[in-house]
Amino acid sequence: MTPSDYVASSLLIFGTLFFFAGTVGLLRFPDVYTRLHALTKSDNVGLGLVIAGLAVQAESWFVVGKLLLIWLLVLLAGASVAHLIAKGAMRRGVQMWKR
Amino acid sequence: MEALTLLQWTFDSLIGLGLMWLAWRALASPQLFRAVVLFVAFGLLMALAWVRLDAPDIALAEVAIGAGLTGALLLAALARLTTAEKAHNEADQSGKRNHAVRTSRWFPAALLLMVAAGLAYSVLSIPPSSAGLSVEVAANLDISGVSNPVTAVLLNFRGYDTLLEILVLLLALLGVWSLGGSPSQRAAPAGPVLDTLARVLTPVLILLAAYFLWVGAHAPGGAFQAGAVLGAAGVLLLLAGWRPHPGFMQLPLRLVLVAGPGLFLVTALFTVVMGRHLLEYPPERARILIVILETAEALSIGTTLAALFRGERPQEKERQ
What we know:
The complex is a heterodimer.
Chain A: H1 3-28, H2 32-57, H3 61-91
Helix pairs in contact in A: 1-2, 2-3
Chain B: H1 2-28, H2 32-52, H3 56-94, H4 99-103, H5 106-124, H6 134-140, H7 149-157, H8 159-178, H9 191-215, H10 223-239, H11 251-273, H12 286-310
Helix pairs in contact in B: 1-2, 2-3, 3-10, 3-12, 7-8, 8-11, 8-12, 9-10, 10-12, 11-12
């Protein structure tokens, strides 16, 4: 394994950890708002790390550009959709969780 | 090497089992919303399965149409059904379960078993290592006008099937329109976030559709994928509250809807008149013909899908 392989693997593993934490949050958090928080925060960073890991191994800058574009689009869609879901839940009167 | 195959084997089994579980849960779920969400998840996992089977073309179509647009259509239908479902639930709780409904399940079950047996038989009767028609496709690829075998099959060798497929899509829309569509729902105002998302994503989606269309000649992509992406752009715009110009909703809309199937039919007739077989393109013109057909098809498919999502037949102008 070359040094870049090590970098790529650790980035990928780190990204998977974020995905894992996000999934646990989605399953374990008490209401829709906190679940959205878990999903959007960790998936954005998790996907960013996975993309970075893949970009290190990419054959050309063209592929790196495509990967970055995917990440940006997911960031945009993820943040917007999370906002829309939360807004929909607010409008339907879903109560926020209180300790 | 062996560890890798074991890992892949585990991964594939997980996908297969996950698919069956999701399908079962989607069918058995009493809550329709949950069923739709499970169906979308099923589509995404199915796309992964197609990728594992080295069929990225079908994976793209599955994600765009199976998971994305069908999911949107189902959710739109669900929103219109909600009132009907409430009435049904109330009736269900007050009255007892109908016995006839329960016994009539045996007939579909027997039918399904027969279909499953037939499928199992045909799968088992396939010789284990059969090249199928891929050898012939590869041999004739250079006269097809494109270098992507999937596009060559869809638009040239089996153009007939594709023609029927897009006609089915058009028929579905005609069916929805003939039923009178559904009363338009006064949706809540879109708000700045959805509005901005639609404004930013629509040009990207149009560009992506053009890319799919162009790249389909030599790599995974093509008219159906491009059409689905265009349809998604339409759905997004409709969700954000955008409505086409009323003038467009008359003749121009109908022309766009029939452009794909219409051009296809004209081409089919033309090839027959020229003394060739149905949809047998002259090899030297095949490339340009396929590009034109695919462009028209993508436009028609995208518009049809967006119109299906809208569901409502555009109001006719008062005839003098």
